[in-house]
Design goal:
Elements lengths: L1 E5 L4 H17 L4 E6 L13 E6 L8 H9 L4 E6 L11 E6 L9 H8 L14 H10 L6 E4 L12 H11 L10 E6 L4 H10 L5 E5 L2
Parallel strand pairs: 1-2, 1-4, 2-3, 4-5, 6-7, 7-8
């Protein structure tokens, strides 16, 4: 059995799609998976069970990345194609079953929209697959010690950004002496170009409690 899973370009949206992929893996454990994702998101899927091919979809002018993806997927017969980009690609491929995301309600969480695509209620939660290589890299970035509270204070556009001072206040409240994460260190996650969004959070915390993973 072969499954083609076309997911997001951006890391955040790709993470949210992992619950749907995990459901398919659990339902069809012997399936051979081909996953198409953007360059930033593709590494998230490197350790997925049953992975046969990981195709990096690099955006091109005039949407030429779609013909390029078609050329790499048209030579096979697919049992299931899941397209979370809402492209016309799936209608050109030979497939027994097709699941294509449509235009959803912007007020509804993306995970719920994804779950509804396969009739899943409640929707499956996101999953992370790691290999020993990933585990060793994480251990190198996050030294052993007290628990870690991870916060990603950045977003790719202003409409999705929470005010930086609110992230700082949240971190301070959660790590206060009488709070649930009193002994926790705070890992700050963001892309390298998002450092200005992350700095107010980093500056608001004691240096010894911060694990700066911006750009890492």
């Amino acid at each position: 059995m072969r499954i083609l899973f076309v997911t997001a370009t951006r890391i955040g949206d790709a993470v949210l799609s992992t619950g749907l992929l995990s459901h398919l893996i659990a339902r069809f454990p012997a399936a051979r998976l081909t996953i198409a994702a953007g360059p930033a998101a593709a590494p998230l899927f490197a350790a997925v069970p049953g992975l046969e091919r990981l195709i990096i979809v690099q955006k091109q002018r005039w949407a030429l990345h779609w013909p390029a993806l078609y050329a790499r997927t048209a030579g096979r017969r697919w049992d299931i194609v899941v397209d979370l980009r809402g492209s016309a690609l799936v209608w050109l491929l030979w497939a027994r079953g097709r699941f294509v995301i449509g235009k959803g309600d912007p007020a509804e969480h993306w995970v719920r929209q994804l779950g509804r695509l396969l009739g899943l209620d409640p929707p499956p939660s996101p999953v992370v697959w790691t290999s020993p290589v990933h585990d060793r890299a994480a251990e190198a970035l996050v030294p052993p010690g007290s628990p870690v509270l991870a916060i990603g204070p950045a977003a790719n556009w202003r409409g999705k950004q929470w005010r930086a001072e609110r992230f700082a206040e949240l971190a301070q409240r959660l790590t206060a002496s009488d709070a649930p994460f009193a002994a926790a260190r705070v890992a700050v996650l963001a892309a390298a170009h998002e450092r200005p969004q992350a700095m107010p959070l980093i500056a608001a915390l004691p240096p010894a409690r911060v694990i700066d993973l911006v750009g890492r």
